[in-house]
Amino acid sequence: MTQPLLEVQDLRTVFTTKDGIVKAVDGVSFELLPGETLGIVGESGCGKSVTALSIMRLQRPGKILGGKVMFKGQDLTRVSEYEMREVRGKEIAMIFQDPMTSLNPVFRVGWQVAEPNRIHQGWDAKKAMTSAVSMLQRVGIPSAASRARDYPHQFSGGMRQRAMIAMGLTTTPQVLIADEPTTALDVTIQAQILDLLRTVNKDFGTATILITHNLGVVAGMCERVIVMYAGKIVEAGPTKDVFANPKHPYTWSLLKSIPRLDEDRHEPLKPIEGLPPSLVDLPSGCAFHPRCSFKVERCSRDVPALLRVGETQLAACWVTQAGTELKGA
Ligand SMILES: Nc1ncnc2c1ncn2[C@@H]1O[C@H](COP(=O)(O)OP(=O)(O)OP(=O)(O)O)[C@@H](O)[C@H]1O
Ligand SMILES: [Mg+2]
Known about the structure:
The chain is of the alpha/beta class. The protein has helices at about 50-55, 80-90, 100, 110-120, 125-140, 145, 155-170, 185-205, 215-220, 240-245, 250-255, 320, and strands at about 5-15, 20-30, 35-40, 65-70, 75, 90-95, 175-180, 205-210, 225-230, 230-240, 305-310, 315. The strands form 2 sheets. Strands 6-7-8-3-9-10-12-11 form an 8-stranded mixed beta sheet, with helices on both faces. A 4-stranded antiparallel beta sheet has the order 2-1-4-5. Helix 4 crosses helix 5 (about 125-140), helix 5 crosses helix 7 and helix 7 (about 155-170) runs parallel beside helix 8. Magnesium ion binds next to helix 1.
């Protein structure tokens, strides 16, 4: 069996707010295998970004209350801040949801892309800049040598996103976490960025965690997918199996809410009824039960564990764990 590159075990991250404790990540466990692209999907506020930030230990003001993030024999939740900085710069890179917050407006783009190699590999400015320019070129910035002298505001949204990717990749990390790398971009640029991530995955063998709202993106990019709801993983498995035969009613509803191009369907799309719950005050039992059309009595009482359902999938659902198929309206 392939050894996982990154292993997240029972991770729990909370925020203390005036309304109470927000359980943003509530017992999340998953593995990332070498070279794979793993998707994380779920409605806004379900804990995708906080999961990624917790892996990087950038979850502040949130607090990691428990769990492990195993990477190369070390638990990243326990290493010193100094060691963590080495990991962040070199081995695990993250592309943040908003590229403007992670590019510094007062430094030239090339200088920033070169920074990880200056700091972590000890390269001199010239060598680091040469490598930054070639990386900017690789991610498709035209006239990279001269554009490297631009400031972030002189770049378009798509170019900033590319610069972020270039910065993340200069040290050829083993893991790349891309948090909604295409949301703010128009469709053509989106497609280009996804192509770029595919190339990176193939050429550098970088294992990628791709966080997105877009199930089409998952279908086109990810071998495996994790579905989150209210801070927990509710379903996980190979993308083709999860999409063909979802084992959690939430996944089932998400898939039903997207239009299918290959079907002549005239019925209106069905959005998932109701809203995600407040993470301060979760419903009893399964957090999805108030919105679930398959629920049984037990669902409002006991929290289901994430267990194997069928050959390849995991689901946290009393109904499918009891062998019921998800069908009908
Ligand atoms: N700094 C913070 N203070 C308090 N609560 C926070 C903070 N950051 C995140 N949260 C809460 O943690 C929960 C998970 O947020 P997270 O950003 O991980 O969601 P997400 O799944 O990435 O959503 P989106 O798809 O909108 O990016 C949300 O309820 C959010 O309100
Ligand atoms: Mg997010």
